[in-house]
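Predict structure. Chain length: 153.
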Amino acid sequence: MSKPVLLLENFLPYRLSVLTNLVSSSIAGAYRERFGLSIPEWRVVAVLANSPDLSAAEVAQRTAMDKVAVSRAVRALLKSARLERRMAHADRRRSVLRLTAAGRHIHAEVAPFALAYERSLLHPLSRGERVALDRALDILLGRALQIGPLTKM
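Prediction complete.
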């Protein structure tokens, strides 16, 4: 029996990583130049625009970003007055994050730009292919969460 061959260019995790890196790097420059935001800062803004009053740990969990990256982004957004930190009403030991007026303004500026980029990226796909892609991504995300780290296999 022959050993399985791993062709990197056909390996799904590699292909997803390359796609993610290409998309992120192409949009990151525009976010930085046009809006003064890094990708992690934009993700924090986008999450808090839809779900205010989350802790930094909850933002990290929802974005699957490293806690250090979220912490840096939060620090930068606090410094630029796009974000404010408050004590949670239910638990005074827990701090939560909320967009300021400046944060809501930047979200209102960036969101249409981000959606236009997404439309351009998805343009070659038919409606059916987009639906299938969304479904496949949902299934793969669920499976990746179910499997967990490779050390468990």
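Summary: Strands lie at 83-87, 95-99.
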